[in-house]
């Protein structure tokens, strides 16, 4: 039997964590969660799932947001368990099969049985808009507009000795040289809910800043400001979600990311070749 463990790092996600944990547990994914020093009820909620889908959870606070170090700490937890396959998913990411009506677990197991060891995901970013019904408590029903951003997310991989899933900040695993990358052409879906309310958005951007040691981490939050309107995206720039599983793969909205020139200046990159090399290092080897 193919066993796939969902793994993830969380911090201050009390508005979403229960729904997120249940999403994967209900689909048959045993779960390992590292809490990065939550100051709300996130860790308490995770602990309540111990033995009910969560097989291991721990809390290791870091003084600043550091994606690489927190994922590396998660890797230390994973090494405690005898696990064959890992599915890395953050608290605001809800993965789906690209086939409507098919469970994620069924789809991923089939990919493994076909001989693939890496599964890729489309990043569908959902945004708050002026059309949201703010009285609706379920954010799945409230936040209905999205834009595709990219597919540089390789989230299913084998737990082999020498695995590194933190060096590329969770975008892609680094497999040991003896292991060949066998990437499925069947790209799956990630429904990504970065911001679910103004309050949650303000708290998130206040703590998620690139650490001094790695400016290429979490830089996509830099352009969000404490202005509440920063989080409300006009619906005309987005695609309205339909329940039929018909996804629009046009990038209609850039998620307020920096332009190429701004990013190069920010990272201190001076040439096109250096920029291409930086981009290539964030994904799988070519």
Low-pLDDT residue intervals, each spanning 5 or more residues: none
H-E order: EHEHEHEEHEHEEEHEHH
**Which class do the helix and strand fractions yield?**
alpha/beta
What fraction strand? Answer: 15-25%
Oligomer status: single chain
* β-strand number: 10
Q: Helical residue percent?
A: 10-25%
Notes on the structure:
- The chain contains eight helices and ten strands.
- The chain is an alpha/beta fold.
- Strands 1, 2, 3, 4, 5, 6, 7, 8, 9 and 10 form a ten-stranded mixed β-sheet that branches.
- Strand 1 (4-10), helix 1 and strand 2 (31-35) form a beta-alpha-beta unit.
- The two termini are 31 Å apart.
- The model has no long low-confidence stretch (mean pLDDT 94).
Quick gist of this model?
By secondary structure, the chain is α/β, with parallel strands linked by helices. It has helices at 17-25, 42-48, 67-78, 104-113, 139-142, 198-207, 260-267, 272-281, and strands spanning 4-10, 31-35, 54-59, 85-88, 93-96, 119-127, 145-150, 154-158, 188-192, 239-240. The two termini are 31 Å apart.
Secondary structure elements and pairings:
Layout: E1 4-10, H1 17-25, E2 31-35, H2 42-48, E3 54-59, H3 67-78, E4 85-88, E5 93-96, H4 104-113, E6 119-127, H5 139-142, E7 145-150, E8 154-158, E9 188-192, H6 198-207, E10 239-240, H7 260-267, H8 272-281
Parallel strand pairs: 1-2, 1-4, 2-3, 6-9
Antiparallel strand pairs: 4-8, 5-9, 6-7, 6-8, 7-10
